[in-house]
Specification:
356 residues, alpha+beta, Structural Genomics Hypothetical 15.5 Kd Protein In mrcA-pckA Intergenic Region, Chain A, Pseudouridine synthase, 3 domains, 11-stranded mixed beta sheet, 9 helices, 17 strands
């Protein structure tokens, strides 16, 4: 029986929703039948379709349904969704920046949700039929980006690849790098934010907050790439865990909310002088190994409003070159200090103040 570790991106969702995401064709009725017979286990215990799952739990379930062929593909795969229009197909295909036989990587634009929800009619998941190509099944989501965050989003092309990539994200074997524009400049040029996070009471699970007592471990490394005097900074964030809204909450926690993030920065999260009011957070780079041992290292160009803001603030684009890549297995373990621990500030690629 297949066993997988629940990834951070799936923390808090219903068990039946997990199967919708990662085992296309496994209907609610199938999940319910497995649950009734005790065939689904979370950390060794029986589980129900409506149970909420948590990151790090071990999920065991019966062998997945066989990959459908064109002749046997379930109606759910082709008939229960409206066919995409030519414009929708062109739209999703225009996002593709990389593909091989295991994965497709897109540069998701800001404003496009990864998955559907209340009031959301257009989303990546609903456009995936446009990327089926010669494959017999549609690509599968294995992680998510917030609706207003742009950048690298990896899709698995087969069930086997989905299992591999899901495990990689859950096991921290995927290295993600984000670019952001922050309000003000962090006093420590490079450091690590260690602030446990939990869902904020009364927010309906839509907002996170720092919770040192009962929050889940959440760590983010960062470095200041460039600055506009003390007004704003171009910051690179590398999450070591994958909590909901982690980078946004951590940036606000050190007093430098991301520009455009009213949810966590309030009315102070905006700049004057023609700087866009959109969220300035971009998934710049993803480094991950494929199921066949191949090495995927993909970067995505920032959304237009981010590029325009960087130009208006006089940032030097050459400073965005990545530091010397550290093999994933050799990434040093984070320190245990809370909120922010300073590094020497002398790492390659860092700069001192460019203004007062």
């Amino acid at each position: 029986m297949p066993t997988t570790i629940i990834a951070d991106d799936d923390d808090g969702i219903r068990l039946d929703r997990w199967f919708q995401r990662h085992a296309a064709g496994t209907s609610f009725n199938i999940v319910s039948r497995w649950a009734r017979t005790g065939a689904i286990r979370l950390n060794g215990a029986k589980a129900a379709p409506g149970d909420r799952i948590a990151a790090g739990q071990t999920l065991t379930y019966p062998d997945s349904l066989p990959e459908p062929t064109p002749a046997t593909r379930p109606r759910l795969e082709i008939d229960d969704r409206e066919p995409l229009s030519p414009a929708q197909i062109d739209y999703i295909r225009g996002m593709v920046i990389y593909q091989d036989r295991h994965a497709i990587v897109i540069n998701k634009p800001p404003g496009l949700a990864t998955q559907g929800g209340i009031g959301i009619t257009t989303h990546v998941d609903g456009l995936l039929d446009g990327l089926t190509g010669e494959m017999t099944t549609r690509p599968k989501l294995v992680h998510r980006l917030d609706k207003d965050t742009s950048g690298v989003l990896l899709l698995a092309r087969t069930a086997r690849a989905a299992a591999h990539f899901s495990k990689a994200f859950a096991g921290r074997d995927a290295k993600k790098t984000y670019w952001a524009l922050t309000i003000g400049v962090p006093a420590v040029e490079a450091g690590e934010i260690d602030a446990p996070l939990s869902k904020q009471p009364g927010s309906g699970g839509e907002k996170m907050h720092v919770d040192p007592e009962t929050g889940l471990k959440s760590k983010t490394r960062y470095r200041v790439i460039d600055r506009a005097a003390g007004r704003a900074a171009w910051v690179e964030f590398s999450p070591l865990t994958g909590r909901t809204h982690q980078i946004r909450v951590h940036a606000a926690a050190i007093g430098h909310a991301i520009v455009g993030d009213a949810k966590y920065g309030g009315k102070e999260a905006f700049l004057t002088g023609g700087i866009s009011r959109k969220l300035h957070l971009h998934a710049r780079r993803l480094v991950i190994d494929g199921p066949d041992g191949s090495h995927i290292d993909i970067t995505a160009e920032p959304a237009a409003h981010i590029t325009e803001s960087f130009t208006m603030l006089g940032f030097d684009p050459l400073l965005g070159a990545p530091l010397v890549t550290v093999p994933l297995s050799a990434t040093p373990k984070p320190k245990s200090r809370r909120l922010s621990s300073a590094t020497s500030g002398n790492r390659r690629g860092e700069r001192r103040s460019r203004g007062s």
